Amino acid sequence: MDKEPITLNGLNKLKEELVFLKEKKRPEIVAAIAEARSHGDLKENAEYHAAKEEQSHNEGRITEINDIIARANVIDVTKLNNEGKVIFGSTVYLEDLDTSEKINYKIVGRDEADLKQKLIFFQSPIGKGLIGKNKSDLVEIKTPSGVKNFEIKDVKYI
Q1: Which CATH number fits domain 4-75: 1.10.287.180, 3.20.20.30, 3.40.50.720, 3.10.50.40?
Q2: Which one, 73, 76, 100, 131, has the greatest CB density within 10 A?
Q3: Residues of the chain with CATH 3.10.50.30
Q4: Mean pLDDT over all residues of the chain?
Q5: pLDDT value at position 51?
Q6: Would you say residue 1 has pLDDT above 70?
Q7: What are the pLDDT digits (tens) for 59-104?
Q8: Residue 37 reports pLDDT greater than 70
Q9: How many helices (H) and strands (E) does the chain have?
Q10: CATH 1.10.287.180 residue ranges in the chain?
């Protein structure tokens, strides 16, 4: 069982989701199944089948979260001193040298990655291209949409 790196924040979000699924969602689904059962014939009972499917998805996600937590290797970057080096969990402030656009990304594990939230997977093309680099470095990264050129303006461990 391989350990998966995860930030402290990412682990806390997973634990919150787990509590929600077990303590709120699970009882709601059980109640919906009981309600649907009370309507009689289960073969043609759409509410029953929908509730059973939802129960299956919920239990699957609970199992998935438990597995992620069991494999979690929590990395707390606030306790690391890396003097401007891009590492897992750091937030990287970039300038796109082709467009002058300023952007920042936090480098995270697979289960936390969310591009809309500027959280990028450390093994994505951009994540791989940034890890190990330093503040002020110029970086060329091959992405699916073409080559990107960045300057690393700052690296923070927050």
Answers
A1: 1.10.287.180
A2: 131
A3: 77-156
A4: 92
A5: 93
A6: no
A7: 999 999 999 999 999 988 888 777 889 999 999 999 999 999 999 9
A8: yes
A9: 4, 7
A10: 4-75
How far apart CA 62 and CA 102 sit, in angstroms, is: 38
Q: State the pLDDT at residue 107.
A: 95
Question: Residue 65: which of 24, 19, 29 has the closest Cα?
Answer: 19
CATH level 2 (architecture), domain 77-156 = Roll (3.10)
Which H or E run includes 16?
helix 8-20
Long-range contacts of 65-72 (CB under 8 A, 24+ apart): 65/14, 65/17, 65/18, 65/21, 66/18, 68/4, 68/6, 68/14, 68/111, 69/11, 69/14, 69/15, 69/18, 70/1, 71/1, 71/2, 71/3, 71/4, 72/3, 72/4, 72/6, 72/11, 72/14
Query: Locate tokens 């937590």: which residue?
Result: 69
Whether 61 contacts 21, CB under 8 Å: yes
